[in-house]
Write a structure and sequence with these properties.
Elements: H1 7-31, H2 39-58, H3 62-84
Helix pairs in contact: 1-2, 1-3, 2-3
């Protein structure tokens, strides 16, 4: 998948994958009435990052996995601050 092991690549991957998933969550929320509770759906988006981290560690891409974890924590902090307001 990746030839380079770089923290910044991990940060980008960690932000893009949940971004795409969040887009699909928004589309599903508008079309499916049951999915109006979006908290668990957004947490599922972050869970996608953990699947990516597991894959990257198996491929010995530790720095890239660290970038994904860092971006996951940043997204979790933003989500927490958003929910507090």
């Amino acid at each position: 998948m990746l030839k380079r092991d770089n923290v910044w690549i991990g940060v980008i991957l960690g932000l893009v994958l949940p971004g795409i998933a969040a887009f699909f969550v928004e589309v599903l929320k508008k079309n499916v009435r049951i999915l109006e509770k979006d908290d668990l759906l957004y947490i599922g988006c972050a869970a996608l990052n953990m699947i990516l981290v597991k894959y990257l560690f198996k491929q010995y891409k530790e720095n890239t996995a660290r970038g994904v974890v860092a971006s996951t924590f940043i997204c979790a902090l933003v989500f927490f601050l958003y929910k507090m307001r």
